[in-house]
Amino acid sequence: MGTIRDYLNSNNIPTANQSRYSKDSFWENKTIKNILRNKVYIGTTEQNKRSRISYKNRKLRPNPKEQWNIVENTHPPIIDKKVFDMVQKMIIVQSYNRNEKKNKFSLDGLLFCYECHHKIGVRGKKNGHYYMVCNNYRRNSKLGLCTSHGFSYESLEETVLKYIRKLFEDIDSEKIELNIKNSRSKYDYEKRLKKLETEVKLINDNIDQMYVDKLDGKISEEMYERLFEKLKDKARQKESEYIEIKEMQNNSKKDDTQSITNIVKEFLELKEPTPEIMKVIINRIEIHQDKQVDLFFNFKQLNNIKQNCIL
């Protein structure tokens, strides 16, 4: 799939967003995979694959495969079924090989890039050590969409587990409430919100400057429109993140203390924390390109406690 993706991007083959909406976008592995697995190309129609959560909520959720309506020979195929079936076997083998390391690393699946918000994967050994890489960078390194974030996974895991163990050793059922009331080592939501405000202001300033450049004839109308949409999308993304963090800040004292106490006890009893318990404790871990690490707990009370460290 990576070979197909690179070929399409290198030869400037337009994506659906580029063709329909003139939006800047690039081919990604998941798009290629969806196309390769789409039975519409062999003359089969699949319906009822998704449904709305409720009449009040317009979001769609996937339906179980047994609820799909699958009808063959609804239209002439453009791909031979034998070729299609062979491709499906190749996809299964590729997925199996890629997932052999599943659950091997306690933090696998929790790592995200702070800069581009894509997942960060744990890759094979380099000089005898496992390392991390931003998936967006790995898939599109030639496009310069992000940086590698290629830091040592072992160092990250050791740093995070030590941090959580020290945090949990300081916590008992009485201290949790006390720490929050006294604002001891509170997580600085305001600092994060202020940073986002600054980033949005910088984007809007760039838009204003582009408009001046357009009036002065320094850039064309077409280039202005293209850059305007790109920057506006980026600003909306930052604003959405701002709202999410603001909500986390407002709801940061509403968790069940007993549930936290039980998880703390279970974690401290383990010599080597499992991926399962780490997914109970941690919601996500964001890695900055300057090696800062932000921890987001699944318990809002723990999100009150300062949670960033440096690799």
What would you note in describing this structure?
The chain is an alpha+beta fold and 311 residues long. It contains 12 helices and 10 strands. The protein has helices spanning 2-10, 16-21, 29-36, 81-98, 135-139, 153-169, 175-181, 189-215, 221-250, 257-269, 275-281, 300-303, and strands spanning 45-47, 50-52, 60-62, 69-71, 111-113, 120-126, 129-134, 282-287, 292-297, 308-310. Helix 8 runs antiparallel to helix 9. It starts with a helix and ends with a strand.
Summed up, the helix count is 12
Structure classification: alpha+beta
The strands making up the biggest β-sheet line up spatially as 5-8-9-10
Instruction: Please state the overall shape, judged from the principal axes of the Cα atoms.
Output: globular
List the secondary-structure elements in sequence, H or E. Answer: HHHEEEEHEEEHHHHHHHEEHE
Terminal CA distance reads: 33 Å
Number of strands: 10
Largest sheet: number of strands, sense, barrel closure: 4 strands, mixed
Total individual domains: 2
Low-confidence stretches: 99-103, 176-187
**Averaged pLDDT, please?**
77
User: Level of helix content?
Assistant: 40-55%
- Radius of gyration in whole Å, from Cα? 24 Å
